[in-house]
Amino acid sequence: MRFHRLAGRVWLYPGDPDPLAVQAGVALVADDRGSVLVDAGQSPAHAREIRAALHAAGLPEPRWLVYTHHHWDHVWGACVWPGVEIVGHVSGRELLREEAARPWSHRYLREQVRANPRLAPSFRARALAVDSWDDFAVLPPTRTFTDEDDLPVGVRLRHVGGAHAPDSTVVLVPDSGVMLLGDCFYPPPAHLREPDDGPDLALVRRLLDDHYDWYVSSHAEPMTRAQARAQVDGA
Q1: Residue 64: which of 13, 30, 15, 98 has the closest Cα?
Q2: Which region is the signal sequence (predicted)?
Q3: Residue 217 in contact with residue 185, Cβ under 8 Å?
């Protein structure tokens, strides 16, 4: 797997298309003043692969790490990215502080699944993703915002919330015409999902903007504006 340029300064490292792997893709906004990494990888091992691919592509090391939201497959690789400022919505900070206090281990994962079998797909993927818990840590954001935040390299963060996660954030790169959506329009996580829950296409419709040519969610191929509009108009 390697980084490929989507448009302008935006590079993508795709995740695993197998939904059982629960492996989100990440993006890098490359800048000589310090790049912005969007999401951290779903485990230390995944993050190390991403970091090796970044070096192989000759891309600048990240100075900021932005969480699109607090779910494990977007943040569990953060401990592999030294020296970055971690940026996320203020509501995600408290959620990740709670996650950081859990006694993560393969034994703990098994105990949680026995207590709540609906957790099995997610927790099985976590067990496969993390081969050692020795140096593992869940890291909350060190810089938070409420509505919007602007990083000094022309990247804007906008909180959108939604049913998938209360802290869902989209990342805007205006000079490249790219909007990184994270999982913001997805239904709630599987263990919380009800039969009638589906994608929030109304949220995507509100986000569509003629200034942006590309819309990127974390678990799918990038969409052009025309493709995104066709999806929401045809639903």
Answers
A1: 30
A2: none
A3: yes
